[in-house]
Design brief:
Layout: H1 7-29, H2 35-47, H3 51-57, H4 71-92, H5 94-112, H6 121-135
Helix pairs in contact: 1-2, 1-4, 1-5, 1-6, 2-5, 4-5, 4-6, 5-6
Length: 137
């Protein structure tokens, strides 16, 4: 059975995944160098996805309007989209829901690894919030 996702569905998935990386980048940038590395490592992880999710995430979400003036504003945008993406996948492509969740988790952990050892508390808290949004669907 072939899964058909609309362009809006694909934009939701892309916005959620790339938004999570952008959120990690914003949290990493809070007073510390290395934000560009976080964005690069997270994006590489997303572009390494396989299956339907890999095909969807192969394109950056050009139609997404993420406001990254503050981490709080960005979180207000991204966290609900992550939950919406999981809800969409649970309904339309349940076999891909775990793939999406694990892809995003790998990407945010890759973004956090720009700092050797355990992530700083700011990044660890953001990882918790993102994984919470992924599990809320």
């Amino acid at each position: 059975m072939s899964v058909i996702l609309t362009e809006q569905d694909k934009l939701t998935l892309r916005t959620a995944a790339y938004g999570a990386v952008e959120l990690m980048t914003a949290a990493a940038a809070a007073g510390k160098p290395g934000a560009h590395r976080a964005a690069t490592d997270g994006s590489i992880a997303l572009s390494s996805a396989t299956g339907l999710i890999g095909h969807v995430l192969a394109k950056y979400p050009k139609g997404a309007k993420l406001n990254s003036k503050t981490v709080a504003t960005l979180a207000d945008q991204v966290l609900p989209v992550l939950t919406a993406a999981m809800s969409l996948l649970n309904k339309q492509a349940p076999e891909e829901a775990d793939n999406f969740r694990s892809t995003v988790v790998v990407a945010i952990k890759a973004a956090a690894q720009t700092h050797r050892g355990e992530p700083r508390p700011t990044l660890a808290d953001m990882i918790r919030k993102i994984t919470g949004a992924l599990g809320a669907a």
